[in-house]
Amino acid sequence: MTTMTAAKKAKEMGRWTHEAETRFVEMWQQYPVLYDVTSKDYHDRVKKEKCWQEIAVDLELPVAELQLKAASLRTQYGKIL
C-alpha cells in the first residue's frame, strides 16, 4: 500500500486540510516566480509552468487544482488584510 500525501488525502475528502494547505504554501514559497511580481521571471510562462509541475508532482495533484487553490488563498489573504 502506498502512502498518500496530505494534499491528496484532502482532495479525496473533497476539501483541503490545514496540513495540506500548509504543505502547499511551503512549497509555493520556494518559487517566487509564481507570486513575486518584482521577480525577473514573473512573466515567463514556461518557467512558471515548470514550477507548477514540480509542485504538482510532489503533492500528487493536478496543476489546475493547485492554481485554483493558490488563487483562493490569495483572495482570502487579501480579505484578511
Automatic annotation (TrEMBL):
Pfam families: MADF_DNA_bdg. PANTHER family: COREPRESSOR OF PANGOLIN, ISOFORM A-RELATED, MADF DOMAIN TRANSCRIPTION FACTOR. PROSITE patterns: MADF. This is MADF domain-containing protein. Residues 23-81 form the MADF domain.
